[in-house]
């Protein structure tokens, strides 16, 4: 007599990916272990975070319960953070809309979950009955009526995730937030249509992740890992050409209205890495796509492809200083001096600018659990204060991402960070455009 | 607060493989749920076959209950000890599993005087949960290679449900995913305005499995294993000619939108000329060109393609390595590969990936692991080693298991092969998109 889940393997994969590659262990199955609350608590208490799956006629509903299920089977009511969700099949993809709940009430025949803003659902195991508030039905995209008979009830232990409610809330809602960010960015139009395309220049030391950031942005819009910009692992700059990378909205989509301009990496040694005299020309828009940089000789107006009269659309509208968060506090004085020198040029040209920290490992700690703002912990990190002081960049324009480098699949929290960073760059560029003199 | 097993991945995997390709779900952990037989039974009864694991200072021992543990039902039980390099086991026959767990309180003096009270002497193994002591008879100790009359204190007791690693549910999932991938690759279409077919070049040391991978891909789309002798190989099967293989849809014979290009293997001294690789990448070398280790092709060769178009070029390069020997590549071979990478990367701009074959030869890996292959510790370690040694981006290192001796297709292998192909097609798309801007 095998005790196997009704949850399909593909559904399980989607849930595990959502939770940051957690694993699930079946603890309780109603049709085997008995449809009573006592039976369920007996097997599921003190097992850590659990996921309950309730299988309706044609849909699947779930509850993620953080922390131990209490051992007391008699009636009680207490705060307990949960997330309910449904599994929505869209073609070959499974989407998982989610709602947050924070109160659990148990009686002899009923489990009731509710939130402070009135959402509520109840499970009556012995009656095989699930009762859902109509707003929940709508939020989770269910087709069922508010009260439904269920076919099966299963509880899994969730392993390999943090028990921090904020972290879980972020993971459970990241997919929805990602979708909204994508939609906003796809609909983005530069300020007052002054230009059709925003140019963002990526500048930074060798190996800081400039090309990886472009690859990560493209990966998010294409829904799989991509590698258009070459990425190396040796400690020399792979990028030797000036590249203007556009991003399509999916494989056959329209080009999006921004271009990421990738340049040769900076090196603290003179005559190695990007020549500082090239930078004013890049900013003004004189350097053509695919120009081969020379560390010793900047481009000159005599170069055959030099753009002699760049217009606003050719200019750089935003500069992103790309820095490895793990080494920024150890920048050599020469590299710091170079960055300051570059920054003076950027300020002289009046170009918008942000700092972008890469190689952030704990992506779930960067943003508040509503995914809208950076956490205080992040804004007070020594790396952030270091750059804030060194270059005078406002805290809200110091951005953080974990580029895709070792993952096989996209992760919604990482995607949110990447898209948020891109959005901040576009906002900064809009500020720049808005501030231009009228005669530009 | 997280509930996790004390077993390392490798320990768990060895046990799982030993008992027939299982996977484990932790149901009970004494330090969390209480050192109480009642609690153990509560959580573990009616859960299917289970395995009880005892952790003492020096040993990991336990019992495998082969059929579903239900109250008062006799089932076959196997005792085991997990040693450094092997798992010793002793079949004690059929018993009620409850006999393994002693529930009654015993005065401490009984242990001091070594007066043990087995519920059933023929079992010879008893776990005194309350006292955190496990007792074994002389015979059991002897069979398991443990000290005689072993009465050992233990720190932890865990009980797992044992399920087949490749259960019906997972098999169905893989079959469905395979169908999706097959359909995706059957309908795959590079940017139509540029080329109708992408070219994927396979490079790698002799014997890495390049030709075998091509045959495996052909097999997947044909619907049964093909072991076509590839024209262009010498009598031992080693490729000596440049070959471009179109892959046909098994149903209607239509050529698919990707071509796999095979070449002479790399070698420290002979093998493929690095200069020839540049010509291959740019599309100058015709199908069936006979390579010469000593001399690259020249434009005077009668079949040299003087003005290759985009369709003649290579759009993605996959370096093929045998997973079990990639870490033993000689320094000369590594240097050669790095030189190729640099010239590919800097001069041509083509995307390069690594393809590791024979993934099922890695320690403890079985076909049942294929669905989640990138989560397996030995695979992760191997990918990290390849990343460090050869510089490939981790997400661009793919693993497959080629068809070598089989007659019929296996959805698990197909899943890996098709996943790798899809990654390569995405890489080629990236390459083409980069070119498009230029034109």
Automatic annotation (TrEMBL), chain A:
The keyword Cell cycle does not apply. GO terms for cellular component: cytoplasm. CDD domains: Ras_like_GTPase (cd00882). The keyword Aminoacyl-tRNA synthetase does not apply. SUPFAM superfamilies: P-loop containing nucleoside triphosphate hydrolases. GO terms for biological process: defense response to virus; immune response. Keywords: Cytoplasm. It is found in: Cytoplasm. InterPro entries: P-loop_NTPase, TLDc_dom. Residues 1-159 form the TLDc domain. Belongs to the IFI44 family. This is Interferon-induced protein 44-like. It comes from Sciurus vulgaris (Eurasian red squirrel).
TrEMBL record, chain B:
Residues 1-163 form the TLDc domain. The keyword Cytoplasm applies. Pfam families: TLD. Its main location: cytoplasm. GO terms for biological process: cellular response to virus; immune response; response to bacterium. SUPFAM superfamilies: P-loop containing nucleoside triphosphate hydrolases (SSF52540). GO terms for cellular component: cytoplasm. Keywords: Cytoplasm. It is found in: Cytoplasm. Belongs to the IFI44 family. This protein aggregates to form microtubular structures. PANTHER family: INTERFERON-INDUCED PROTEIN 44. This is Interferon-induced protein 44. It comes from Sciurus vulgaris (Eurasian red squirrel).
């Amino acid at each position: 007599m095998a005790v196997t889940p009704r949850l399909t393997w593909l559904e399980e994969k989607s849930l595990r990916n959502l939770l940051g590659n957690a694993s699930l262990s079946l603890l309780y199955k109603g049709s085997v272990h008995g449809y009573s609350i006592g039976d369920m608590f007996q097997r599921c208490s003190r097992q850590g975070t659990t996921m309950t799956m309730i299988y309706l006629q044609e849909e699947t509903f779930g509850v993620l319960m953080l922390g131990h299920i209490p051992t007391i089977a008699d009636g009680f009511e207490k705060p307990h953070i949960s997330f309910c969700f449904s599994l929505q099949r869209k073609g070959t993809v499974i989407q998982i809309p989610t709602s947050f709940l924070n109160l659990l009430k148990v009686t002899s025949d009923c489990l009731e979950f509710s939130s402070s803003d009135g959402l509520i659902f109840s499970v009556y195991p012995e009656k095989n009955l699930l009762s859902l508030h109509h707003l929940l039905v709508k939020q989770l995209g269910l087709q069922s009526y508010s009260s439904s008979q269920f076919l099966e009830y299963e509880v899994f232990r969730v392993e390999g995730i943090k028990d921090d409610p904020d972290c879980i809330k972020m993971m459970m809602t990241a997919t929805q937030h990602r979708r909204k960010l994508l939609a906003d960015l796809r609909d983005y139009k530069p300020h007052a249509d002054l230009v059709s395309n925003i140019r963002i220049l990526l500048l930074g030391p060798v190996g800081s992740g400039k090309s990886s950031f472009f690859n990560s942005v493209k990966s998010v819009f294409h829904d799989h890992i991509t590698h258009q910009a070459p990425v190396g692992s040796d400690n020399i700059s792979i990028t030797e050409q000036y590249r203007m990378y556009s991003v399509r909205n999916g494989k056959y989509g329209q080009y999006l209205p921004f271009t990421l301009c990738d340049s040769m990496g900076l090196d603290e040694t003179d005559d190695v890495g990007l020549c500082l005299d090239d930078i004013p020309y890049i900013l003004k828009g004189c350097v053509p796509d695919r120009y081969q940089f020379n560390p010793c000789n900047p481009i000159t107006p005599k170069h055959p492809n030099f753009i002699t009269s760049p217009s606003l659309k050719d200019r750089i509208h935003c500069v992103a200083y790309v820095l490895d968060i793990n080494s920024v506090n150890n920048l050599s004085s020469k590299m710091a001096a170079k960055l300051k020198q570059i920054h003076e040029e950027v300020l002289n040209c009046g170009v918008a600018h942000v700092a972008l920290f890469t190689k952030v490992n704990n992506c779930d700690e960067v943003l508040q659990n509503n995914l809208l703002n950076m956490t205080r912990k992040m804004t007070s990190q020594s790396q952030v204060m270091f750059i804030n002081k060194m270059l005078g960049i406002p805290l809200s324009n110091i951005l953080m991402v974990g580029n895709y480098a070792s993952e096989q699949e996209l992760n919604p929290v990482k995607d949110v960070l990447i898209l948020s960073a891109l959005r901040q760059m576009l906002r900064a560029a809009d500020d720049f455009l808005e501030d231009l003199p009228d005669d530009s | 607060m997280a509930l996790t097993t004390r077993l390392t991945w490798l320990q768990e995997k060895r046990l799982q493989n030993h008992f027939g390709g299982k996977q484990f779900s932790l149901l009970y952990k004494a330090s969390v749920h209480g050192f109480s037989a009642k609690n153990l039974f509560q959580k573990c009864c009616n859960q299917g076959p289970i395995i009880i694991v005892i952790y003492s200072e020096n040993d990991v021992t336990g019992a495998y209950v082969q059929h579903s543990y239900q109250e008062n039902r006799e089932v076959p039980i196997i005792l085991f000890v997990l040693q450094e390099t092997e798992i010793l086991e002793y079949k004690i026959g059929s018993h009620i599993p409850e006999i393994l767990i002693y529930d009654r309180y015993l005065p401490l003096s009984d242990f001091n005087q070594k007066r043990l009270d087995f519920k059933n002497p023929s079992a010879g193994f008893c776990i005194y949960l309350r006292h955190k002591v496990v007792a074994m008879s002389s015979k059991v100790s002897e069979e398991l290679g443990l000290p005689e009359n072993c009465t050992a204190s233990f720190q932890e007791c865990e009980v797992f449900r044992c399920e087949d690693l490749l259960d019906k549910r997972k098999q169905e999932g893989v079959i469905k995913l395979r169908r999706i991938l097959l359909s995706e690759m059957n309908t795959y279409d590079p940017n139509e305005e540029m080329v109708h077919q992408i070219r994927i070049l396979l490079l790698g040391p002799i014997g890495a499995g390049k030709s075998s991978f091509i045959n495996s891909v052909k097999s997947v789309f044909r619907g049964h294993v093909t072991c076509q002798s590839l024209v262009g190989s010498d009598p031992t099967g080693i490729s000596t000619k440049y070959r471009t293989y179109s892959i046909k849809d098994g149903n209607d014979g239509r050529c698919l939108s990707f071509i796999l290009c095979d070449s002479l293997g790399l070698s420290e001294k002979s093998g493929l000329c690095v200069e020839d690789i540049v010509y291959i990448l740019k599309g100058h070398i015709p199908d069936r060109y006979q390579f010469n280790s000593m001399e690259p092709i020249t434009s005077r060769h009668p079949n040299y393609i003087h003005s290759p178009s985009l369709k003649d070029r290579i759009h993605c390069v996959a370096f093929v390595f045998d997973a079990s020997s990639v870490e033993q590549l000689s320094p000369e071979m590594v240097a050669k590969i790095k030189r190729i990478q640099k010239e590919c990367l800097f001069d041509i701009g083509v995307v390069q990936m690594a393809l590791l074959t024979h993934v099922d030869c890695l320690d403890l890996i079985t076909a049942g692991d294929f669905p989640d292959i990138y989560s397996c510790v030995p695979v992760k370690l191997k990918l990290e080693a390849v990343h460090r040694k050869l510089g490939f981006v981790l997400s661009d290192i793919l693993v497959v298991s080629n068809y070598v001796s089989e007659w019929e297709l296996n959805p698990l292998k197909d899943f890996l092969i098709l996943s790798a192909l899809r990654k390569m097609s995405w890489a080629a798309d990236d390459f083409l998109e980069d070119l498009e801007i230029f034109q």
